[in-house]
Amino acid sequence: YDLFRMMQYEASALGINMSVPYGAWMGSVIEDSFWAPHEVIVEIQDFITENERLYSTESFSEIAVAFSVQSAYDWSELNGSGSKHPFWQAANALVDQRQPFDVVMLPEGVLREDVITAESLAQYRTLILPECSYLTAPQRAAIRGFLERGGRVLATGDLGTNLGPDARTSLLGHPNLLRTTDVRVADLAGGPQVAVDPSVDLAINVHRVSDKEAAVHVIRYDYDEERDEVPVLDRMRLDVRLSRPFRMIKTFSPSGEVAAKLTYSRDVREMHRLELRDVPLYFVALLQG
């Protein structure tokens, strides 16, 4: 039952999809189908409807991972359609290290024009370019501008191989660009944005509800097969760096009340400590200030 909950919340609660997955209604009408039970679907939909304001298309993420459409196509042509583009390795590495991140799309520049600029990347400290072998001129300019403004770029695999020698050298030779094979939190600008204690398996995202509100969405993956549930944790501590201070906290969960205390540290700039009790499978902590 909890496994079904986890699957459904993964697709809805973190803002990936604003409803339960397409086709989930089949669990209500087809016997022996692998869909969440009807009561789980209702529980999730009711929670999202009642708390819709906690979900946003903007974030407080410090990390952006670029997905290059043309580069992914070229990768598939070279390695076969069954080979995953390195974008997924980078994304999985951040999830494994419990870091929130956004995805920035880099279109091929013909069927869809570029909208990326250095200004559109201004909120991020770190930009990750996994196998971005093809870059348009606007994309190169945006990345170069991001570097010049002090941002850090982590490049895995090939980068801008279609560019001329001078344009490519201006990127690869920049002191703020690091060529690497793995995405590690130690290489992120400012270090990790989030620290979790205890070190349980989870995913986290921080939605920008407004300039004065941040919604911290957390879903846990530490499923216990013997107990057939994600056990409630007695306590959890989250240290979250945000671009502005928040002073108050409220929690929301379909699984009961989550006790929470928020501390903002003046000594550690922009760091917020969330001390939580009775932590369920999924919850949202709304920070206000």
In short:
With 289 residues, the protein is α/β, with parallel strands linked by helices. It contains seven helices and 13 strands.
Task: Describe, in plain words, how this protein is organized in 3D.
This protein has 289 residues and is of the alpha/beta class. The chain starts with a helix and ends with a strand. It contains 7 helices and 13 strands. The radius of gyration is 20 Å and the shape is globular. The strands form 3 sheets. A 5-stranded parallel sheet has the order 2-1-3-4-5, sandwiched between helices.
Supply the helix-strand structural class. alpha/beta
Number of helices: 7
**How are the strands of the largest sheet arranged?**
2-1-3-4-5
Helix content: 10-25%
Feature tags:
alpha/beta
Architecture blueprint of SSEs:
Layout: H1 2-12, H2 26-29, H3 38-50, E1 63-68, H4 69-79, H5 86-96, E2 102-106, E3 126-132, H6 137-148, E4 152-159, H7 165-172, E5 177-180, E6 194-197, E7 202-210, E8 213-220, E9 233-241, E10 248-252, E11 259-265, E12 271-279, E13 282-288
Parallel strand pairs: 1-2, 1-3, 3-4, 4-5
Antiparallel strand pairs: 6-9, 7-8, 8-13, 9-12, 10-13, 11-12
